[in-house]
Fold this sequence. Notes:
Blueprint: E1 2-3, E2 17-20, E3 31-34, E4 45-50, E5 57-62, E6 70-71, E7 74-77, H1 82-98, E8 104-111, H2 119-129, H3 131-136, E9 138-139, H4 148-157, H5 165-168, H6 174-185, E10 188-189, E11 193-194, H7 195-214, E12 223-227, H8 231-242, E13 246-252, E14 255-258, H9 265-269, E15 288-290, E16 302-305, E17 324-326, H10 335-343, E18 348-349, H11 351-354, H12 357-366, H13 374-399, H14 403-411
Parallel strand pairs: 6-8, 6-9, 7-8, 12-13, 12-16, 16-17, 17-18
Antiparallel strand pairs: 1-4, 2-3, 4-5, 5-8, 10-11, 13-14, 14-15
Amino acid sequence: xxxxxxxxxxxxxxxxxxxxxxxxxxxxxxxxxxxxxxxxxxxxxxxxxxxxxxxxxxxxxxxxxxxxxxxxxxxxxxxxxxxxxxxxxxxxxxxxxxxxxxxxxxxxxxxxxxxxxxxxxxxxxxxxxxxxxxxxxxxxxxxxxxxxxxxxxxxxxxxxxxxxxxxxxxxxxxxxxxxxxxxxxxxxxxxxxxxxxxxxxxxxxxxxxxxxxxxxxxxxxxxxxxxxxxxxxxxxxxxxxxxxxxxxxxxxxxxxxxxxxxxxxxxxxxxxxxxxxxxxxxxxxxxxxxxxxxxxxxxxxxxxxxxxxxxxxxxxxxxxxxxxxxxxxxxxxxxxxxxxxxxxxxxxxxxxxxxxxxxxxxxxxxxxxxxxxxxxxxxxxxxxxxxxxxxxxxxxxxxxxxxxxxxxxxxxxxxxxxxxxxxx
Length: 424
């Protein structure tokens, strides 16, 4: 494990400019004045690890450390870079601050194919290498390519119990806290799901519903396209379908599926494999199969990128036909693409608000603020998400401030820590 040097560059940032807008949402600003990007400090720490057996490279970036703790998932994908992990760690810091959580933000990433039969062993060696951090400071969880059950199995094998270990060990009774966490994660909810698997997607769904409420449109006439039907995208699709929204288009790694009358989301989710891909050989009748890139140009009200980072770029942003983008994937829209969308009057609800329900809920559970009764968690997250989205879109309409800028201003003023983080 070696310390990394500062990379020569970082993600491009939006520069100050005034651009004409093409109104896409009722009450959208006539012209969006893009304010300078919020100053973003250097990460607290970067670590790089190389697997001696496979050559896989892994990274841990801690953007902020508060109360000796930072939180953020661990992803695995071919091509994962330190710049990507650094961006995601910054996003986690924004999430924890925006939702007034008493910890900092971090992220882990491994450049390796999660479908490779050696992937679990690589993940285990990565966690062993990062053990000083995951034992005392870094609370991690699932992310792209690493489901929660898998990372929990690795932690169990390492004698660390569960991936929230760094927080749980601080409790007066770690065994009781671990049991409470496991009960919450494994609480059964309607649809045959577990609460820990769907709470993040539930939050994304209500970010979408809050957007529709803001422009005065009922769910039954609101259309949605979702890129990705894994843990986050699949559960968002499920709860939007349950709320009566018409999910007309979904995409996975194999392509895009479309039905203008609305897809039977529960039926499609039942056809998923372990990698969140839908079995095309068992598709219901009446579903049109399109190229994977077609998801971005779907004629819908709301587009939900819920798969990979940097999915929306300057090259494809003009393909977007949606009235609003709700980021379920981390860093789904590049800064340049977001500026181009803002110029067209298309707001982007940023990931560190829209998909922050999973991390917020995990810490509510750790702190004993919710229990294993799903409705308590759903009620709290729904209320907070609707409030935050309404504020983001009001600033967009009334003050020509992009939702990301408003969110960054929240994140720049986190609630002060009044003492040590207490885990009951």
